[in-house]
Write a structure and sequence with these properties.
Layout (H helix, E strand, L loop, with lengths): L7 E6 L8 H5 L5 E7 L2 E6 L2 E7 L5 H11 L3 E5 L11 H21 L4 E5 L6 H14 L4 E5 L1 E2 L2 E2 L3 H13 L2 E5 L14 H20 L2 H4 L5 E3 L6 H14 L1 H4 L15 E3 L5 H11 L4 E2 L15 H5 L5 H16 L9
Parallel strand pairs: 1-5, 5-6, 6-7, 7-10, 10-11, 11-12, 12-13
Antiparallel strand pairs: 2-3, 3-4, 8-9
């Protein structure tokens, strides 16, 4: 009888327990700070304004391991909280902050190599600096890849300047995790948490369409990319996207003449769709080798017990369940199972 699958969570976020005042370090505001106000409690603030309440599972490796042991999660893939991208800042300052965050993630992985895998962050608004930090992440810090946002300020991911970053990622064998941030239309959605409920799925679809229509995935077939939150709105609107490609090629096929549907199964998505029927559809659409467990730990929009929905679905075969819990993550990360066996 084969060993039970490892449970590898490709979508978790981490912060250092603290960092210097960035407004003092760089000479202007807009950056996130962490204000501890009690045992295991802290507030993320921006220029003194409340952004988010967090607990020690956001920064404590020990607490994360306790939670993982409780929920039978074997491995977490660590990436920063997207608000920390800071693409809007001066490039040299985003680079400095990226180095701080990446060094922290690398130190956590080094201390617990069988429990964590690291993804770095990059100053994407300056592709040359981004490539420099990408190389450091992979070669020096021995990370599996990087996390990037769904856009970079006014650039979508089709921007020609960004292509060299993707090309270098492919050359280095770096995994690329794409996560929504700074959601489109947020000014029109001030209530009901709509930027997170409506804006995030749209952001991820924007990123996927941008990379497909620009030919990024066509030109870089070995680039390993995973999109958060089940691919956002893309899987549910791919029929509309394909139809638009056929009826208005003058608008849609200007940079890539390949049908968008042809790219299904050529990138990964995580499993975070919160509905068993939605996950069944996602697996059917993408293929059961392209959906990997992702929980968004430790935040409230995530799955409270990572992998519970996958484990509870009678409609999944044991083969598919193993792929979702373990094998697809290993494929995305390009890591052997043996790396995580103690």
């Amino acid at each position: 009888m084969s060993a039970p699958p490892l449970k590898i969570d490709v979508h978790t976020h981490i912060l250092p327990e603290g960092w210097p005042s960035l407004s003092e370090r760089y000479g202007y505001g807009g950056f996130v700070q962490l204000e501890h106000h009690g045992p295991g409690c802290a507030r993320m603030t921006i220029d003194g304004e409340f952004f988010r309440e967090v607990r020690d599972n956001t920064w404590s490796a020990g607490r994360r391991i306790e939670d993982c042991d409780r929920d039978r999660v074997d491995v977490q893939v660590l990436s920063t909280v997207p608000v920390m991208f800071s693409y809007w800042a001066k490039p040299e300052h985003s680079h400095d902050l990226a180095r701080l965050l990446n060094d922290h993630i690398a130190s956590v992985v080094e201390a617990h190599p069988h429990r964590f895998v690291g993804l770095g962050t990059l100053p994407m608004q300056d592709p040359d600096l981004a490539i420099r930090e990408l190389e450091r992440c992979i070669v020096e810090l021995r990370m599996a890849g990087v996390e990037i946002g769904t856009h970079v300020n006014d650039w979508n991911l089709d921007r020609p300047e960004l292509f060299e970053v993707f090309r270098r990622a492919e050359e280095l064998g770096a995994a690329v995790f794409v996560h929504p941030w700074d959601m489109m239309g947020k000014e029109k959605m001030p209530r009901y948490w709509l930027p997170w409920l409506v804006g995030m799925p749209a952001e991820t679809s924007l990123a996927i369409c941008s990379m497909i229509f620009a030919g990024v995935l066509e030109r870089l077939p070995r680039l390993r990319v995973l999109f958060a939150h089940g691919g956002g709105a893309f899987p549910w609107t791919v029929g509309r996207i394909e139809h638009g490609f056929h009826v208005r090629p003058d608008l849609c096929a200007v940079d890539n003449e390949v049908n968008p549907r042809a790219y299904l199964g050529k990138f990964w998505v995580d499993s975070l769709v919160h509905d068993p029927r939605a996950l069944e559809f996602l697996i059917e659409l993408m293929g059961d080798d392209r959906v990997a467990l992702g929980s968004d730990y430790p935040f409230p929009l995530g799955e409270p017990v990572p992998g519970r929905m996958i484990e509870s679905m009678d409609s999944l075969t044991d083969v598919t369940r193993r792929r979702l819990l373990e094998k697809n993550a290993l494929g995305f990360l390009n890591r052997p199972r043996e790396d995580f066996l103690t």
